[in-house]
Design goal:
Blueprint: H1 14-23, E1 27-29, E2 41-43, H2 45-64, E3 69-71, H3 81-86, H4 88-91, E4 93-98, E5 105-107, H5 113-118, E6 132-135, E7 138-141, E8 151-154, H6 159-163, H7 166-173, E9 179-188, E10 203-213, H8 218-236, E11 243-247, E12 259-267, E13 270-279, H9 283-292, E14 298-300, E15 306-308, E16 311-318, H10 319-330, E17 331-338, E18 341-349, E19 360-364, H11 371-382, E20 388-390, H12 396-406, E21 410-414, H13 416-421, E22 423-428, E23 434-438, H14 442-451
Parallel strand pairs: 3-9, 19-20, 19-21
Antiparallel strand pairs: 1-2, 4-5, 4-6, 7-8, 9-10, 10-16, 11-12, 12-13, 13-16, 14-15, 17-18, 21-22, 22-23
């Protein structure tokens, strides 16, 4: 697929993904019985499992597999001066305009330039208001009195919690530059324009890593982390034709950035940012030094106690946005020749087994004659190592289709032959092929299949 592609060429549409997400228990509208809360979503049984597995994959990649990165879980509520130092109080704004006729609100930077210049609404042609800035931080109060002395903010990003703890981690964990700090956590932005399902929301989770380096080595490390993050998505089994790099131009660069690239994914609504890799220079630690009065210089004992403010290379991805990418990337509709019926279709999610909400489903062919009891025994053996599901309701073909929609990579069917020779049928989601496997070898066979898994594209 060309980098110039502007239209989604896959089979998933946002309407199909939204429908499947609710039907199968991935994502629900927050407070739906009250009409829903705009910009907020609840993750159902399959959704929370998918989200947790994506987070665990990222955490393993960024901490367990790295010798120079440690983790952190910083508080959501931080001292208000933090956000003055970071520039969020002054700079964290969206340019907004309203249509005086249809009352629709737009981000000015997302309106066609010709409409903005003519102050003409792209929806109804009415007159637009002047552009004004709107700060995206949620503001609240802490303590018994609601006055300005007690104002506090819900954090709009997780990075600042890392910066203010950088010296603590050096001292407590004897970290030496270059090193990184990783964090997964909630962030909150008062987005006026929320759309495209869970892509842009007011409450979301970030997966961020801040890598501290010696000034002068930042370009080298910036390029290194671009390579590592691209390779991560290959490892995750993403269709790489739907990914591309976008470099921020001079007008796009944030106030703290020396250089910045986004990994963009071709979502159903077009190319959108998935993850950012940024060279933040030494802006953040310099500002926190200034506003806190604390010396945040690094003392490089391996360079004759040289003192300097480290540069920071940041990788920042939205967890819930990544979940939407995984859903979009995995979604497929296939025509299946089933028992002579050439018009049979199935909806299937081709999740990599490491992120699939359910790894293996156990399906007794019948509820009677001891098959259900044997199937439950098999599930008990497997559930220590795998995420399992049990389904004994309906025809076996219908159960297979339900598991395909949930993205379950493997199904184990327990039949009468299982009672006789202690074997089961192992069904593979992507190919729909089946193999007879001894019950005693089932666990090891599943581990082997997961290790050797190749994504079907």
């Amino acid at each position: 697929m060309s980098d110039l592609a502007t239209e989604y060429q896959g089979k998933a549409t946002m309407e199909k993904i939204t429908s499947l997400a609710k039907r199968r228990g991935f994502v629900f509208q927050s407070s739906e019985i009250y009409g829903g809360q705009n910009g907020a979503w609840d993750y159902g049984p399959l959704g929370v499992e998918l989200k947790n597995r994506i987070a665990r994959n990222w955490w393993k990649e960024m901490t367990q597999l790295q010798d120079d990165i440690v983790g952190l879980d910083a508080a959501i509520l931080m001292h208000p001066r933090t956000w003055e130092a970071s520039g969020h109080v002054e700079n964290f704004t969206d340019p907004l305009v309203d249509c005086k006729k249809c009352k629709t609100r737009f981000r000015a930077d997302q309106i066609p330039p010709e409409n903005l210049a003519a102050k003409k609404c792209p929806e109804c042609g009415g007159e637009l208001t002047d552009t004004r800035k709107f700060n995206l931080m949620f503001k609240t109060h802490i303590g018994p009195a609601e006055d300005t002395a007690n104002i506090i903010y819900l954090r709009p990003e997780t990075a600042q919690g890392i910066y203010v703890n950088y010296k603590n981690i050096i001292q407590s964990n004897r970290m030496k530059i270059p090193f990184g700090i990783a964090q997964i956590g909630k962030a909150f932005r008062n987005e006026i324009v929320t759309k495209n399902f869970i892509f842009r929301t007011c409450e979301f989770e970030q997966m961020e890593m801040q890598f501290f380096v010696k000034p002068g080595t930042d370009v080298e490390w910036f390029n290194e982390w671009k390579k590592r993050r691209w390779a991560y998505y290959e490892k995750l089994g993403v269709n790489m034709n739907n990914l591309r790099w976008h470099q921020h131009g001079p007008d796009e660069l944030a106030h703290y950035a020396k250089d910045a690239y986004d990994i963009e994914y071709l979502f159903p609504m077009g190319w959108r940012e998935l993850e950012g890799v940024h060279n933040r220079s030494n802006y953040d630690l310099t500002r926190h030094t200034e506003f806190s009065g604390k010396d945040l210089q690094y003392i490089d004992q391996e360079a004759n106690n040289e003192r300097y403010i480290p540069f920071i290379i940041e990788t920042s991805a939205g967890l819930t946005r990544t979940l939407l990418m995984v859903l979009s990337d995995a979604y497929d509709e296939e025509k299946v020749a089933d028992k002579g019926n050439d018009d049979d279709w199935r909806t299937v999610l081709h999740f990599h087994p490491t992120v699939a909400p359910v790894t293996v489903a156990i399906l007794p062919l019948m509820k009677k004659d001891g098959l259900a009891e044997l199937a439950q025994d098999i599930r008990k053996e497997l559930k220590e190592d795998f995420a399992t599901d049990y389904d004994q309701s309906g025809a076996i073909g219908r159960r297979y289709r339900r598991q395909d929609e949930a993205g379950t990579p493997f199904c184990v069917t327990v039949d009468y032959e299982s009672k006789e020779n202690k074997t089961v049928t192992l069904r593979f989601r992507d190919s729909m092929e089946q193999a007879r496997v001894p019950i005693a070898e089932l666990g090891e066979r599943l581990k082997k299949e997961i290790k050797e898994y190749k994504v079907a594209k």
